[in-house]
Queue: 3 jobs
Job 1
Amino acid sequence: MTQTEVRVRFAPSPTGKLHIGGARTAIYNWAFAKAMGGRFILRIEDTDPERSTEENTQVILRAMRWMGLDWDEGPEVGGPCGPYTQMQRGDIYASALEKLKAEGKVYPCFCTKEELDAKRQAAGESYSGYDRTCRDLDPASARERIAAGEPHVWRLKVPADRGAIEFEDAVYGPMSFPAEVMDDLVLVRSDGSPTYNFAVVCDDSSMGITHVIRGDDHLSNTPRQILVYEALGRPQPVFAHLSMILGPDNKKLSKRHGATSVEEYRDAGILPDALVNFLALLGWSLDGETTLIPPDVLCREFSLDRITKKDAVFDEAKLDWMNGQYIQRMGAAAWVQAARPWLVEAGATERDIAEQPLWFERAYPLVAERLTRLDQIPEKLGYLFWGPNVQLDERSVGKVLKKEGARADEALRAAREVLADTTIAWQCDPLQDAVRALCEPLGMKPKSMFQPIRVAVCGNMVSPPLFESIELLSREDVLARIDATLDAAF
């Protein structure tokens, strides 16, 4: 580790799934580290014992890996600055506290919660924070009370002459907070556990973090953390605070707007590169025009100066469009692998996919331009796995097969005779040409000929290309479906 090396971190709390806001923060840290040739550290902040679980940690790690956000140091990887979970870093916090005690920069506070609540209630709107009752206690008396087991916390002595707390935010620019509104913050609770602002400064400074890139909900924590950096005598990092992500109604993104976790979008068939691309553009841009930015370009071009102060709006329609673009560009082989769960849901088997990958690759062009999410595959391609059976859509039966004067039964019988002719190659173009040739002698338009076949083979009048689909099916199954349709509808 060198002084000039960029080191950033993503530090989620394992109290639930990895949500969209956290995922964007992780992406920005990861991309910045890659662009600067630095290190991306993953740290688990699990100091909330009631809500933090190992299961949630694994959920977060899986989401990170699925998005391709590989970390250089952290859980399952290790590194020179571990441990990388806060619950295992107690000795580091204790050592930092002892240093502050020795330098007279902290003091024990014996005020009870009830006493503090009473002071807050009495002061009402004029309450400006802890009144420092215990700051000037006689040291010998304080030691005796501690030795007697009296509950206490440890507070930071904010210097009385400390001027405004100022820093240059890489996104928001110059920031200034009046020191007088900063009370003597608690660093260590009565149970010996560190508070967030103390632990995060100990962690970031001991891990050599050079840039703290995080949501602007942490902006109010920054002046407090700067006071801790100063007390510990450690250099403060560059801070970059990210604007909020809003829903279409310009309110903070929440479950009422739809899915909010990475896993939900993964399970809906959003591709990882598409989600990373989409989230990266929620507050950052490459040039103000380019929309499709693959991970390698993002990691090469990302910079803090392109992050906007303006709140970003989560437009799910744009995510769907972007995902559709990635599906179109991914190629058949990659699509088959990504689509496996939904192909199985549609009716394929894992064995079929493993043993006949080329057959499944031939299905890709049928839907490449028709999918926006992979979870649409069962609806759009389910008919490929019906075998000799057909599931007729009632609306299509009424509008196509039983439409007065449509002559659909006549079209199906004529088409069946052609499709049963084994001298015609079972390929898209010859089959389509042979059926089209029936139109003139029957006095029918191509649409009147093709639509009944589409319903009989695919189940409805809206499906992927007809003869490309027929080519993927066996002759026996196609003929059986036409026969079943004739029996059911006429």
Job 2
Amino acid sequence: MLNLENLQLINTNSPRETLAYKGNGVVYKIPVKRTNPAYAKVWLDKQKLSKQVADSVSAKKTSDTYTIPKILEISDKEFFVKEELVTGEALKSSFVETLTPEELDIIYKGLANFTNDINQSRSVLTQKDSFDISTNINYVGGTPMSDVLEGLKKYLPEKSLDIVRMAKDWFDTAAENDASVVFAHGDINEHNVLFDRKTKKLSILDFAEAKYQNANYMFYVDYARLGWLDIDRLVEEYEKLPKAQPVRTKTDIKVKDMRNALYNFKSTAEEFLKKPNVATKIRLGLISQYIDKIKQLYEKVTGFNDFEKGLTNINTLNQIKEKQNNVKKAAAKKKGKRK
């Protein structure tokens, strides 16, 4: 039976999900709502994911620039996790400001190596892949877009669906040069990254939110939770490292906008197709709004409006020329009759 009375609570910063207690060289973690079995089970499932990811990344580590604590035990009966204790201080801005340039260099190299290792621990995907395939941990591509459009045939005109098809075709091509979709930590924050000034060791904790992410999002949103972090410097360190699978870290704003619009359309349509008889008119209206947005973006990225204007101008010029020719022919005919 786990007894927490003589243990020291070490995460006193209003923990959202987990209470952590320090023991003899180990940390015991329990859910905040331990007495709620349903909540505790969801929490425990996350800890099992955390162990699976931590073990797989540790097994494939390419550098000693960072450490990952081992999860030693997971109790399904008592709802606790026993983990190796790692020393260090949370990377809050106030602490980072006291570090030397050499210490900061260790941190940047450690973060870059860790990020590379976890990204390479599973398949690196393209944005196109992410629409239409599923992976085995915490990432579901969902129903292929072609199936979603087929299901909507009974409810929306083919012309509207063709707009989505054309936009998706454009996106599939453009996405080949867009940011990759990579397996990532998912919850980088100052309390999940520790640095020990004595040992010069960087430690990465808590993989309960690990999932596939857009590489651009991973750096510029997830890592941005570390307010002191120079993200461009981190990306530069990351891109220097050898990779068995190439990773693109930059995204084009037009591709990003189209990706978001297609995802919104697809997820809304998937939910609608599960129960099409519930608030049908309202939900079809929402789907149609997403199609209008996709159309606007498609016209923008392909220069569709310019093409249409150009075509109109050509037709107008042709009509003018035809009228002029007709006038000339009529005049010539009239002149011939006079002779």
Job 3
Amino acid sequence: MAKSFDRRAFLATSAAALGAGAVPATAQTENTTQMEEPVEIVRRNISSFRSLDWRPYFSNLKGGACLVDTTSRALHYWSADQSVYKLYPTSVPLTDDLTRTGRTSVVRKVEGPSWRPTPAMKKRNPEWPDFVGPGPDNPLGTHALYLSWTYYRIHGTHDTRKIGRRSSNGCIGLYNEHIQELYALTGVGTQVLLI
């Protein structure tokens, strides 16, 4: 005799299993109870983004301000007159030893940047090229904001898989469309704080 499938019982037990986490769920059929595989809930890319006020981080907004939060992997921007607030997802350095925190500022802006690996990058990755000009293979994407710290940048990336991850060698990466927008909003002298 063929067993019939009770859709309501299946949906009810599935919903209960999802609410309970990775617990074996049972599905009722007309005549028997059968065990199903455990249901495992996997959460990926859960955003911890939240709007922030600039006051705990900056004494003023002269020249505008960027706050880079390496824990939440987000960049916050406030304009000098407080009329613009932006929040962007970022990539952050692979490891804590590659991460520099503290206060700096934008010292140079480049559209279509070229890229050279730092001596430390070249030592870790000798196969990398010595120079990459502007274009789709350039790790700095379409725009770069050079910081007062040597070798540190806020820049775009053509590899969108890197955003939201620990994936850089020290810089802060944004989607190309976001760095283009931030590039237009910032100027030389914009305050930057990495936490």
